[in-house]
Design brief:
The chain has one domain (2-459). It has helices at residues 2-5, 7-19, 21-32, 35-55, 63-70, 75-99, 101-108, 114-137, 141-165, 171-197, 203-237, 240-253, 255-276, 280-312, 320-346, 350-375, 377-403, 410-429, 434-459. It is mainly alpha-helical and 474 residues long.
């Protein structure tokens, strides 16, 4: 089958394994862990993501541009050189975690012994991500898929074993499972990267990399605040149980984000090449199909989300059915702003990306403070949705009016967003009328099959870079 031979299919599958590990394990761990354990794990995961963004220096964000700038022959040398910067960063933070683990444990609300473990997990998880970024940039989909699969299934299997073995503090089982698998695979990736490049200090590469990637640290940290601060604030303003339920709902609602990020890994190299060649017609045609598929998937998911929540979690997590659709709508606006952000990345205007995300994160904190005391976890979900809507508008303005030349019309994207918001309102009106919701979901599924299936059968998820994409999609 042609679809299975298309590299994009492997990129999507591998990305779904990476981004979807929490989703894949949700029905297992919600039955093995208490809501309190789930809340503590959510806070730990937040700190892993924050320190991972800093320790890795976001150097993986430079690989596509480095490939264009220096060519494939120099890529291994570039990777080993910039990886040296991340190793220096890791050694520094690991030393701090050992020297000040008691103090850091109090600040981070973690057991002190977890602080150095967290730093180790952060670095080696980043190393795996760096290797996978190379596989995407150099179009090696099978290697990308296999590394993603080994990492995901290894984490799931080992975490389950450790969680089952523990009578209390079961969240530690997940911590140990993640850390051991990341450390083993990450060490292998590190040896391969440094061994193939064998160039550890190159000031030219460092000067190219750091001005582009250091702003991305601000972007990533701000994005984490935007994604995760609501959980920290729910713990502070309400309790761990509320945070656990919200985290569960957020994981399920983020299935839209998982699908988008998976397809985006296939989209970005293709988009870079078409933009470089000035093939705006091909981009518009493909984006129209891509957009229709994402709208249909989001609408369908929102409509059936209460049943999905019941399937994936125990009754203790049932309130998540009210939160998940709002979170899914927010993730859809993340997808919408990604088109402008990819354009900013192409032009190496990463400062604008950081400014936008920082603004949205600060706004999100303010909205959480205002809304959580009044409507609880629903306030956190609505605050996140509003923040992503404004972030989408900000990035579109940057791409269209500051950088200029952005080819995707605002009207097309905004209509898609309005469709999702209208569907969200109708969902709550029909919350208890499941036959109506499911009938509408089946209609959306029929549209999706009619629109996308003929194209996918012919080309795969995305066509190759040389294929004709000026399609009639009316």
């Amino acid at each position: 089958m042609k679809i299975l031979k298309n590299p994009a299919v492997l990129y999507v599958a591998g990305s779904f394994l990476i981004q979807g590990v929490n989703l894949l394990t949700t029905p297992i761990f919600t039955r093995l862990m208490t809501t309190s354990d789930y809340g503590v794990m959510a806070v730990y995961t937040l700190w892993v993501a924050i320190f991972g963004a800093i320790i890795g220096l976001q150097i993986n964000g430079s690989l596509n541009n480095a490939l264009i700038q220096y060519g494939p022959d120099a890529l291994n040398k570039y990777m080993s050189s910039v990886m040296t910067l991340s190793v220096f960063s890791f050694v520094f933070f690991f030393a701090l975690s050992l020297l000040f683990q008691d103090f850091l444990g109090r600040i981070l609300q973690l057991e002190p012994f977890l602080v150095p473990i967290m730093v180790v997990q952060c670095f080696f998880a980043f190393t795996i991500s760096f290797m996978n970024s190379k596989f995407v940039a150099t179009k090696q989909p099978m290697k990308y898929f296999l590394l993603s699969a080994f990492n995901t299934f290894g984490i799931v299997a080992l975490s389950m074993v450790f969680v089952i073995m523990r009578d209390t503090d079961k969240y530690l089982g997940r911590v140990y499972g993640n850390t051991i698998v990341n450390a083993v695979l990450g060490l292998c990736c590190l040896v391969i990267i440094m061994g193939k490049g064998r160039q550890f200090i190159n000031l030219q590469f460092w000067k190219f990399c750091l001005p582009m990637t250091l702003p991305l640290i601000v972007h990533t940290l701000s994005n984490l605040v935007l994604n995760q601060a609501d959980r920290y604030m729910l713990t502070a303003l309400i309790d761990d149980t509320t945070t656990g339920i919200y985290s569960f709902a957020y994981t399920l609602g983020s299935v839209i984000s998982v699908i988008w990020m998976a397809i985006n890994n296939a989209w970005v190299p293709w988009f870079y090449e078409k933009t470089k060649n000035g093939e705006h017609g091909a981009i518009l045609s493909m984006q129209k199909l891509y957009n229709g598929v994402m709208v249909a998937l989001t609408l369908g998911f929102i409509l059936i989300s209460p049943e999905f929540v019941r399937l994936m979690g125990s009754k203790d997590f049932s309130y998540g059915a009210y939160l998940t659709p709002v979170i899914a709508a927010g993730c859809f606006f993340m997808y919408l702003y990604s088109f402008a952000v990819n354009y900013e990345f192409y032009h190496r205007k990463t400062v604008f990306i950081s400014i936008g995300t920082l603004f949205a994160a600060l706004l999100n904190i303010l909205l959480n403070f205002l809304m959580i005391p009044r409507i609880g976890s629903m306030g956190a979900a609505v605050a996140t949705l509003i923040s992503y809507i404004l972030l989408f508008i900000f990035h579109y303005c940057i791409a269209a009016f500051i950088i200029k030349g952005f080819m995707i019309p605002f009207r097309r994207l905004m209509i898609s967003g309005l469709m999702v918001l209208v569907a969200l309102g109708l969902f709550y009106l029909c919350f208890d009328l499941w036959p109506i919701r499911w009938a509408a979901a089946l209609g959306v599924a029929g549209y999706l099959l009619k629109t996308a299936l003929p194209f996918i059968k012919k080309n795969g998820v995305l066509p190759s870079a040389t294929s004709d994409t000026n399609l009639n999609l009316e």
